[in-house]
Design goal:
The complex is a heterodimer of chains A (217) and B (140). Chain A contains five helices and eleven strands; from the N terminus they run αβββββαβαβαββββα. With 217 residues, chain A is α+β, with helices and mostly antiparallel strands. The N and C termini of chain A lie far apart (45 Å). Chain B is mainly alpha-helical. In chain B, strands 1-2 form a two-stranded antiparallel sheet. In chain B, strand 1 and strand 2 form a beta hairpin. Chain B starts with a helix and ends with a helix. The chains are: A alpha+beta (217), B mainly alpha (140).
Chain lengths: 217, 140
């Protein structure tokens, strides 16, 4: 008798637990400045929509001396960073961590990597190629790109929101931040992780599958 | 039974006394090791890694005990002046330049040498600032 009465109650609780357990609601935030824009919808109504910051068009020489652009990253998610090959401070750690992620998603063509060099004087494509080979990276999944100072620095500062600069007083001649920036399929910034901090890199590893699943509903 | 217990207790007592009476040199080496660890994290770890594993073909690992032993008197020079020639560590060639860490004093170098050569599977014992000074005078 007692069991009979509590049965519906128990089953509701179990049902709720099961339902919430299966529903992974975690969503990554959309970062960067945004603005509101007045738009006209297809049925003629005028509403306000949020316009998020996106990565603009780019075209750079990669480690194979061929031009790459947004085309290669179309419908992919990617991790972008800024480095230079002769950097002896944070870059080796960043790329050690990035390589761990690279190894993990080696068989997934939807995850790509884009490393921009900020050493526009020395890091020509041939230098980048040698660096990539020594890092143990080949194939097109991880791109190392070279561009003019102006184009790279502007992209870093205004689009990826990473501070980079030339500094003659610094040991290696340049200073930069070590963010690994996670970009989604709509070119929006969905996360920035300190590439030298093991906990944040672990978080990035957890966030990649979340972003990968996002548009597959 | 009682005798056995007393015996065990007194034996462990003696063992504890012996263990805690480490000689002064061992304590000095431990101090060097701990200080060396901080210097390592600050100046070396970015390239050589937290476990001395190196970074692919860019930075050599520090786990090759044979290399470290054979080049014992060169390590101070490597740190102070950097390396710009090809070296072979653990059967692999490394040709990237190692930057000089020239702001370290002799005692700092000795401490970081003690840390590296007694960690990552190495066990070479103490290294003194005097030895570092002598090594640096003979750098190639």
């Amino acid at each position: 008798m007692k069991f009979k009465r509590s049965f519906p109650f128990l089953s509701i609780i179990t049902y709720t637990i099961l339902l919430t357990a299966c529903h992974d609601a975690r969503k990554l935030p959309i970062l960067g400045p945004r603005e509101a824009e007045t738009i006209t919808t297809s049925d003629g109504k005028i509403t306000v929509d949020t316009v998020y910051q996106t990565i603009p068009d780019f075209k750079f020489l990669n480690q194979d001396s061929t031009y790459i652009s947004n085309e290669q990253f179309k419908d992919k998610i990617y991790i972008a960073d800024f480095f230079f090959t002769s950097c002896s401070t944070i870059c080796p750690t960043m790329h050690r961590n990035m390589k761990t992620i690279f190894e993990k998603y080696k068989d997934n063509p939807d995850v790509k990597y884009l490393s921009h060099t900020i050493d526009f004087k020395y890091d020509k494509p041939s230098v980048l190629k040698r660096y990539a080979q020594k890092l143990g990276v080949d194939g097109s999944q991880w791109q190392f790109v070279y561009g003019t100072k102006d184009s790279i620095y502007k992209l870093a500062e205004y689009s990826y929101l990473v501070a980079v600069m030339e500094d003659t007083t610094a040991r290696d001649g340049y200073v930069h931040q070590g963010w690994l920036v996670l970009i989604d399929r709509q070119r929006r910034i969905r996360g920035a992780y300190d590439g030298t901090n093991p906990e944040q890199v672990a978080q990035l590893m957890k966030d990649i599958p979340v972003l990968l699943n996002e548009d597959r509903k | 039974m009682r005798k056995v217990i007393i015996c065990i207790l007194s034996l462990s007592c003696i063992a504890t006394i012996i263990y805690s009476c480490q000689n002064a040199n061992q304590i000095k080496q431990d101090v060097y090791y701990v200080n060396g660890r901080d210097i390592y994290i600050k100046n070396c770890q970015n390239c050589h890694g937290s476990n001395g594993e190196g970074l692919a073909a860019l930075s050599p690992p520090l786990t090759d005990s044979i290399f470290l032993k054979a080049n014992k008197h060169q390590i101070a020079c490597f740190i102070k002046n950097g390396i710009n020639t090809k070296i072979t560590v653990a059967g692999r060639n490394y040709e990237e330049n190692m930057p000089a860490v020239d702001h370290l004093a002799d005692i700092d170098i000795a401490q970081v040498i003690v840390y590296v050569t007694n960690n990552f599977g190495n066990r070479q014992g103490m290294y003194t600032p005097e030895q570092v000074k002598a090594d640096l005078n003979k750098c190639k």
